[in-house]
Amino acid sequence: MELVLITALGVGGATVMGALIGFAFKKLSHKFSDIILSFAAGVMLAAAVLGLILPSIEYGGGGWMALLITIVGIFVGAVCLNLIDHIVPHLHKLAGVDSEKHPNKNLNRVLLFVLAIAIHNLPEGIAAGVGFGSGDTSQAFLIAGGIALQNIPEGVVIIGPMLSAGISPRKVFVSALITGLVEVVGTLLGYCAVSVASFILPFALAFAGGTMLYVVSDEMILETHAHGSERGATYSLLIGFCVMLVTDVLLG
After folding, report:
1. Which residues contact 136 (CB under 8 A, 6 or more apart)?
2. Would you put residue 168 in left (φ > 0), alpha (ψ -120 to 50) or beta?
3. Would you say 42 and 238 are in contact if contact means Cβ atoms under 8 Å apart?
4. At what angle do helices 137-157 and 107-133 cross, to 10 degrees?
5. What is the pLDDT of residue 65?
6. What is the pLDDT of residues 28-82, one digit of tens each?
7. For 202-251, how does the pLDDT look when each residue is reduced to its tens digit (9 = 90+)?
8. Residue 174 class from Cβ within 10 Å (0-12 exposed, 13-18 middle, 19+ buried)?
9. Would you list the DSSP string of the chain?
10. Whole-model pTM?
11. b or e along 136-158 (b: 16 or more beta carbons within 10 Å of the residue's beta carbon)?
């Protein structure tokens, strides 16, 4: 449990680390941001497949029934995030807030942007917690590492719009801290749920994998291909995926 808590704090703390970087570099170029976010997308994609979806089939005992449970879990996870997206705006629709021209008018949009990140952090935290609940520490670290890498650029992008909207640096930092704490809570929830009811592990792994695939496809890839850096973003995603593939093989 101590290891899970430390990892949860690390995953959540990655958002805060990104926020600190955002304070230091308030005006990162779109190209640089897209390259970093694409690398994180590749890492998350590998973590979802290698650390969650394939183990889901394995823990389900293999065969058609295990495959069916995994597929259902993937779609249920994706649908849950899709429902969340109907409640709060998409991250990619708010990330480009033109807050320099109309800071006061865009304040609500910026706050919704931060709220969207916080809500999306919950299932990501659950994914990390479920990984530890499976008992495979190496795979759990693979998943947690992938999510943490994704959280760093996510923390970076929330700083500029909030500062431009007139929010004080202190409140901006507190907001980033809260989004990170949401992930800590999610990690603990995922771990406790699987630990208490181990029979739900195959479905829980697939569910967590589905949420991660949804975030990568619906949010991260779309955002990184919106500013003319498609080629670099694509290769960066492939590099991130291969880095996690090598890591998985070495840890295995």
Report:
1. 55
2. beta
3. yes
4. 170
5. 93
6. 677 777 887 788 888 888 888 988 899 899 888 888 999 999 999 999 999 988 8
7. 898 899 889 889 888 887 788 788 778 889 999 999 998 998 888 878 76
8. exposed
9. -HHHHHHHHHHHHHHHHHHHHHHH-TT--HHHHHHHHHHHHHHHHHHHIIIIIHHHHHHTTSHHHHHHHHHHHHHHHHHHHHHHHHHS--HHHHTT--TTTSTTTTHHHHHHHHHHHHHHHHHHHHHHHHHHHTT-HHHHHHHHHHHHHHHHHHHHHTHHHHHHTT--HHHHHHHHHHHHHHHHHHHHHHHHHHHH-GGGHHHHHHHHHHHHHHHIIIIIHHHHTSSS-HHHHHHHHHHHHHHHHHHHHHH-
10. 0.72
11. beebbbbbbbbbbbbbbbbbbbb
Q: Record the tokens describing residue 20, joined without a space.
A: 């600190």
Unique residue bearing structure tokens 């629709």: 93
Reading the block at residue 125, the tokens are: 């935290």
Measure the CA–CA gap between 98 and 94, rounded to whole angstroms.
Answer: 9
Question: Which tokens hold the place of 48?
Answer: 């979802």
Tokens coding 159: 């700083």
